[in-house]
Automatic annotation (TrEMBL):
This is Glutamate dehydrogenase. One of its GO terms (molecular function) is nucleotide binding. The active site is at 114 (proton donor). The keyword Endoplasmic reticulum does not apply. NAD(+) binds at residues 197, 228. It comes from Alistipes communis. It comes from the Bacteria. The gene is gdhA.
Length: 435
């Protein structure tokens, strides 16, 4: 703790994993002898750098860039880049730590990493975003590569930013390789990558619901966020027969009791991805909806909750409100959106609750599939990628059930995901010696 002082999110993520693994490590003494968990909790490398860039007024602005290369035991570092003013070392270390387990769960050969900057893309022109991305990659380029470290998108980093970063990387290296994932479909991107995290979270929830003979059909779903993950979670939940009634952003949420239909979802995609507007505008456009400024959607009655915005966006009181309102299933599209207190409430009430490292692994899994297609110089059809994504999510669910089923039959998906994700990385680290 002292070594990582001032890193509360990182402590939170490590504590959860350590608690899940305690029994498993006692049963396998070689793990403590070889200090495997202690090594996993120490990044292999952290790179911090200056990112100077020129704004549209010709003034110099300075941000801080990071890449946390957490673990390369089972493959090159792999994980997203986040651009958000809240970005700091604690947040990126927690994300990189979680990513190591998540990537292992996908069964694909990917290590764990995460990076980003405290740069805020909101309110910036396309040219400003481009100049920032070019400066960011000018330094990052020397630390990444298709066999070393493969970044992707995350909060504040979508197709536009990946395009600018990939373009600069290509200029610097003079090579067209799969060093970034989330690329456009005409220039190395995989079909289904934009959809993958949201769709995968729904596929995982489908598997959880099936264990109790349930499905999305006829269910009411609350989703937070309105970015990449939230948009496609809403689309897939609707395709599976559910009614999605909320979306949010950092300013508030909208509640549409008539359901956010495919036509309305298209409007949200245009609003957020093209015009970079606020979710409040949804209620201006659709008067049947109400906008709640400064609030989160967890007080709304629903059967299924899907937090898809950011870390610690659902606390213990909000979890209690969801339970009281009859919620049966919580599938995390975001990383660590539920606080430890919220997780306790879900598990005490025996909800179907899946942590992000299992439920949202579809995004990085499809990034892994993008890497494979890039290496083979091939392009798979959307149907092919979707089938692989589905199979990967089903397999992660099976692993969670295998390692997380309690004596009373309740599936503790946190424990299942942590043990399942840990084993492969731990075995690789044992085989590779003290490194
Ligand atoms: P986007 O930037 O596309 O969307 C983020 C959404 O969350 C926006 O609606 C944003 O609102 C909201 N949000 C961000 N920060 C906050 C905050 N502090 N409080 C409330 N709302 C906030 O990001 P993604 O959809 O890609 O990512 C969402 C989550 O999913 C993150 O936790 C990410 O790590 C996780 N994830 C993403 C994957 C991917 O493939 N993209 C893969 C796996 C996990 P606003 O516009 O107001 O900022």
């Amino acid at each position: 703790v002292a070594k990582n002082a001032g890193e509360p999110e990182f402590h939170q993520a490590v504590k959860e994993v350590a608690e899940s693994l305690a029994e498993y490590i006692v049963m396998n003494p070689v793990l403590s002898k070889m200090k495997v968990l202690e090594r996993i909790a120490e990044p292999e490398r952290v790179i911090i750098f200056r990112v100077p860039w020129l704004n549209d007024k010709g003034e110099i602005e300075i941000n801080r860039g990071y890449r946390v290369q957490m673990n390369s035991a089972i493959g090159p570092y792999k994980g997203g880049i986040r651009f958000h003013p809240s970005v700091n070392l604690s947040i990126l270390k927690f994300l990189a730590f979680e990513q190591t387990f998540k990537n292992s769960l996908t069964t694909l050969p990917m290590g764990g990493g995460k990076g980003g900057s405290d740069f805020n893309p909101k309110g910036k022109s396309d040219n400003e975003v481009m100049r920032f991305c070019q400066s960011f990659v000018t330094e990052l380029a020397r630390h990444i590569g298709q066999d070393t470290d493969v970044p992707a998108g995350d909060i504040g980093v979508g197709g536009r930013e990946i395009g600018f970063m990939f373009g600069q990387y290509k200029r610097l290296r003079d090579e067209f390789t799969g060093t970034f994932t989330g690329k456009g479909i005409g220039w190395g991107g995989s079909a289904m990558r934009p959809e993958a995290t949201g769709y995968g979270t729904c596929y995982f929830a489908q598997e959880m619901l099936a264990t109790r003979g349930l499905s999305f059909e006829g269910k009411t779903v609350c989703i937070s966020g309105s970015g990449n993950v939230a948009q496609y979670a809403a689309q897939k939940a609707t395709q599976l027969g559910a009614k999605v009634v909320t979306l949010s952003d950092s300013s508030g949420y909208v509640y549409d009791p008539t359901g956010i239909t495919p036509e309305k979802q298209e409007y949200v995609m245009e609003l957020k991805n093209v015009f970079r507007g606020r979710i409040k505008e949804y209620a201006d456009r659709y008067p049947e909806a109400t906008y709640y400024a400064g609030q989160r959607p967890w007080g709304v009655k629903c059967d299924i909750a899907m937090p898809c915005a950011t870390q610690n966006e659902l606390n213990g009181d909000e979890a209690a409100a969801l339970v009281k309102n009859g919620c049966i299933c919580v599938a995390e599209g975001a990383n660590m959106p539920s606080t430890p207190e919220a997780i306790k409430v879900f598990q005490e009430h025996k909800l179907l609750y899946a942590p992000g490292k299992a439920a949202n692994a579809g995004g990085v899994a499809t990034s892994g599939l993008e890497m494979s297609q890039n290496s083979m110089r091939l392009h798979w059809s959307p149907e092919e990628v979707d089938a692989k994504l589905r199979a990967i999510m089903q397999n992660i669910h099976e692993v969670c059930v295998k390692y997380g089923t309690e004596p009373d039959g309740y599936v503790n998906y946190v424990k299942g995901a942590n043990i399942g994700g840990f084993m492969k990385v731990a075995n690789a680290m044992l085989a590779q010696g003290c490194c």
